[in-house]
Write a structure and sequence with these properties.
The chain is an alpha+beta fold. Helix 5 packs antiparallel against helix 6 and helix 6 packs across helix 8. The C terminus is likely disordered.
């Protein structure tokens, strides 16, 4: 496929002498995450700050430069030899954005074959001022949770994001708090974005999407109070009171969490029929 360059970033890449594959591949940058050696190759991520040209107002902007070699997975378009995993991630980013799902902004993507080696580069813009739900929880545990009104704005933004994904039959498959980023704005609004899209899939049934992704979120969200969990669940379904379907879905998620041994029954969404009365 042809190289992709985000037109909003082309001048910035040119200004930093990073507008072609070879320059990006050779660029010296510390690892933000240690390279992952598996699938017969390796894949690593670096955080880089790029200088803005004067036409962009000067200053700097940060990107995540992801490089990999012989790190492949079988895709339906490449069923035998496989293709770089970044190709699948790039396609997912494009799909999410095309359907209005807030996620990463792609800056650059390209692949090269060098001898027997297959290389790929994917660049995304750093999400400035966003923090993961996991980081939020750590802050709340250390400093105390914010007022409930603030917590609910955060939860509503995440619930809206997840609902919009499922409306478009997108199942994330790893919807953990560390992959959900939020940003509180000065006007009181909250934005939410989802990252790590590589394992996302389209699924014909929205209920299957809900069970899987709500399970992922619930299994890593012990810090949420039961009332906040219930409020989030209602916000996700856009209901004021639990319907028979909502109660069934809630129990299905709870049973999956217990069956997988993620958290103790007392920490799940629902543990008894009597508890589903709100």
């Amino acid at each position: 496929m042809a190289d992709f360059i985000n037109e909003h970033w082309r001048a910035i890449l040119v200004h930093n002498s990073l507008a072609d594959f070879e320059a990006l591949w050779r660029h010296k940058a510390e690892w933000f995450e240690e390279p992952n050696h598996r699938r017969g190759g390796w894949s690593g991520v670096s955080r880089c700050e790029l200088e803005l040209p004067d036409s962009e107002g000067g200053g700097r902007r940060a990107i995540f430069l992801k490089r990999q070699e012989n790190h492949k997975a079988r895709l339906w378009t490449h069923p035998l030899r496989g293709a770089p995993t970044f190709l699948r991630e790039f396609h997912r980013i494009q799909y999410y954005r095309a359907h209005g799902i807030p996620t990463l902004e792609p800056v650059y993507f390209a692949m090269r074959k060098v001898g027997r080696d297959e290389r790929a580069i994917l660049i995304t813009e750093e999400l400035t001022s966003f923090v993961s739900m996991e980081e939020c929880a750590q802050r709340w545990l250390k400093l105390g949770a914010p007022e409930r009104s603030e917590r609910l704005r955060i939860l509503e933004a995440v619930a809206t994001l997840l609902r919009d994904m499922h409306v478009h039959h997108i199942r994330h498959n790893c919807f953990f708090p560390k992959h959900v980023l939020v940003r509180a704005n000065s006007d009181g609004s909250v934005e939410a974005r989802v990252i790590d899209l590589e394992k996302s899939r389209l699924h014909p049934f929205k209920t299957a999407c809900a069970i899987r992704d709500l399970y992922s979120l619930a299994s890593k969200s012990q810090m949420w109070s039961r009332s906040d969990r219930l409020w989030f669940f209602k916000s996700y379904l856009r209901i004021e009171r639990l319907t028979p379907y909502a109660k069934w879905l809630w129990r299905a998620v709870a049973e999956r969490v217990i069956r997988k041994g993620r958290i103790a029954p007392a920490m799940t969404f629902i543990t008894t029929r009597a508890s589903v009365t709100e």
